[in-house]
Amino acid sequence: MNIPYEKAFDLLAQVKAWWTTRIIDIRPGVIRIKGRPIETLIGNVGYAQMVWLMLRDDEPTPAQLALLEAALVAAVDHGPQAPSISIARMSVTCGVPLNAAMASAINVLDGVHGGAGEQCLQLYKDALAKAATQPLEQALDAALAEFTAAHGKMIPGFGHRFHPVDPRSVRLLALVDDAQRHGVVAGRHAEVGRLIERTLERRTGKQLPMNIDGATAVIYGELGFEPALARGLFILSRSVGILAHAWEQKQQGGRIKGPLPPALGYTYAGKH
Questions:
Q1: C-alpha to C-alpha distance for 146 and 196, rounded to whole angstroms
Q2: Which distant-in-sequence residues (6+ apart) come within 8 Å of 146 by Cβ?
Q3: 3-state secondary structure of 225
Q4: Minimal CA–CA distance to 218: which of 110, 77, 71?
Q5: Cα separation of 35 and 16, whole Å?
Q6: Which of 111, 151, 224, 232 is an S-S bond match for 115, by CB 3.0 to 4.6 Å?
Q7: Annotated domain spans of the chain
Q8: How far is 42 from 234, CA to CA, in rounded Å?
Q9: Band of the pLDDT at 1, cuts 50, 70, 90?
Q10: Which GO-annotated molecular functions does the record name (predicted)?
């Protein structure tokens, strides 16, 4: 098939424009991330800084990177009872390789299991946006009313099934407070999070302290990340735990392990 030169040139331009990226430039012998040669990054940039570089266009300070790294470290694992972790382990016993086990686990990190950080950060941001024209307490009440009307009464990021007080959150919030004292962050997301704690306690009569999702949402918000990225960053973090458990299960062996030992059975609710 003969294509006129002019048309071929136009088609080539269309092909080159099909994918457009400001993230990476690859040519023979050249790899640049955001304009920085990869060989200057290797050995000089840590993982948290690389995550920032890939997702953002601004340059982080060491103190900002320390907060980001703390959040990534805090959420790596929460035991084999966490659905994503148990799925990874069960997948390995079904004979799949590590990549398939990890993919199976990551696929369930959606709105219910894995999405609380994103939802919580959006709630913080909604409250702060309303606080531009009214007192924070009123802004939060309005944001909570809108959230519960749309999603139900459970507020993501607060309370925990296992921990009366989530030890991860305590440490993360202490780091945020220290960063605020040193002018690294403004502390507004932390202020909203703590106000939600007090509001929920007043409304329910129960203490529902901030959990890991609420605390990491504070950090991601203070650092200027968008809510959707809060879920992506959580998945990056939890992937470490998923990989570790999948690998451990591979070493332990086992064949077609279900969620419970067979002797425990299950409840049949159909017709006899």
A1: 14
A2: 126
A3: coil
A4: 71
A5: 19
A6: 111
A7: 1-44, 83-252
A8: 24
A9: low
A10: citrate synthase activity
